[in-house]
Amino acid sequence: MSLELIFAAANAIVLPAWVLLLAAPGWRWTRRVAAVVTPSLLSMVYVYFFLLQFRVLGGSFTTLAQVSRLFSVPTVVLAGWIHYLAFDLFVGSWMARDGLERQIPRLVMIPCLLLTLMLGPLGLLVYRAIRWSRTGEVWEAE
After folding, report:
1. Residue 16, Cβ neighbours under 10 Å: how many?
2. In 24-73, which ranges are continuous DSSP H helix?
3. Cα(120)–Cα(36) distance, integer angstroms
């Protein structure tokens, strides 16, 4: 299977979960698909590709030059992309659940989720600011 096909498949797999988060965040299947099933599938693909190449390349995360060396290989770039897809979806699913618990209106949540889909950390930051402005909570004590 080509890397382009795997890239397209990973993108296709993640989109239905995001649609569920946007359209039906409180549905029990949304929670299963967006928080567990899809991120787990993507994580398995990530582990396969990244660990397979990481051993061969001998790169590390200790310097920017070493990270750049790792990401000069298309298979590692694909693993990195899948990493983003899995983690952004997991964060988005947490935000959707948290927003429901704190009764943050869906019209406020939709831009946060879309930002998380497209720009990960920015969406999380915007959600945290909205959450703080509405509830006074930045971090929950769990």
Report:
1. 12
2. 28-31, 38-57, 64-70
3. 18
Which pLDDT score, from 0 to 100, does residue 58 have? 63
For the question of whether the overall pTM of this predicted structure is more than 0.85, the answer is: yes
Q: In the numeric block, which tokens belong to residue 2?
A: 């080509």
Closest CA to 16 of 31, 33, 28, 4: 33
pLDDT in tens, 18-64: 999 999 999 999 999 999 999 999 999 999 887 777 665 666 778 89
Cβ-contact 25, 106 below 8 angstroms: yes
Which residue, 11, 25, 27, 28, is CA-closest to 88? 11
Structural contact between residues 38 and 14, judged by C-beta atoms closer than 8 angstroms: yes
- Is the Cβ–Cβ distance between 92 and 123 less than 8 Å? yes
Sign of the torsion angle spanned by Cα atoms 139, 109, 37, 42: negative
Rounded Cα gap, residues 13 and 64, in angstroms = 31
